[in-house]
Amino acid sequence: MNVPLWITIPVVLFILLAAREDLRTRRIPNLITGPAFLLGLTVHLAMGGPSAGLAALAAGVFAGALLLPGWLMKFMGAGDVKLMVAIGAWLGEPRLALFAALFSLIAGGIISVVAAARLGILSRTVRNAVLLLPRVVAGAGPAGAPLETSGVRVPKALAFLAGTLIASCWRM
User: Fold this and answer.
1) Which residues, 6 or more positions from 88, have their beta carbon under 8 angstroms from its beta carbon?
2) pLDDT at 171
3) pTM over 0.90
4) Is-contact 51 93, C-beta < 8 A?
5) Tell me, what's the pLDDT at 38?
């Protein structure tokens, strides 16, 4: 494993807690993400001093910034972004946070494809994604005409769990 167990176990536990809420309510409450973020910063500060605390802060901000466009374009909720900020802070390294965010996005895409296929709307979803691609690339946000989506909301906390575990085990 690339990440020590003293980091991996708390991260997995708070992501599981967030996933339970995400599955149940389709929301990830601040009561989970806020304390997880602060505790991640505190642990790194206590274990490694100010430089480790700053690295954890940078990792959290970096991981959240990667998901921020998805929130701005209404592809994901603010709780998803805040959960990734907390994950990044716990992981403590911007590079590891980058991989966790990227693997989480890939896992989320796979989960979304499976959900769309199970609901019988995969072809419509793919067509809409192709039509939306130019707007996403151009950076057109909520100010434009409403984006047409399938309307299916997939809980992303499970994808974040998968992505974080893959990044934690990945040999970089």
Assistant:
1) 56, 59, 60, 61, 62, 63, 64, 94, 97, 100, 101
2) 64
3) no
4) no
5) 97
